[in-house]
Amino acid sequence: MQAHRSLYARPETLDLIREIAFRDRVSAQSLYREGLLLMLRQRGYFLNKGIDDV
């Protein structure tokens, strides 16, 4: 099951994420999930899990 949460960030940050998504031909959502996975791994979670588990 997935849950929806709003993300509040500065407009410049959101613009940069959109630019990166366009350049890398991925969705902004996939970049957010990548960031969440990296943050969780830094804290010792999701070490044996992948992006689809976020």
Order of helices and strands: HH
Helix fraction bin: 40-55%
Number of helices: 2
The fraction of residues assigned to DSSP E strands is under 5%
Shape: globular
- Rounded average pLDDT: 94
Q: How many structural domains?
A: 1
Largest sheet: none
Number of strands: 0
Uncertain residue segments = none
SSE class: mainly alpha
Tell me the distance between the termini. Answer: 11 Å
Radius of gyration, CA atoms, in whole angstroms: 12 Å
Features:
54 residues, mainly alpha, 2 helices, 54% helix, 0% strand, globular
Model description:
The chain has helices at residues 11-24, 28-42. It is 54% helix and 0% strand. The radius of gyration is 12 Å and the shape is globular. It has one domain (11-49). The mean pLDDT is 94. The chain has two helices and no strands. By secondary structure, the chain is an all-alpha fold. 0% of the residues are buried.
Write the layout of secondary structure elements.
Blueprint: H1 11-24, H2 28-42
Tell me briefly what this model is.
The chain is mainly α and 54 residues long. The chain has one domain (11-49). The chain has helices at 11-24, 28-42.
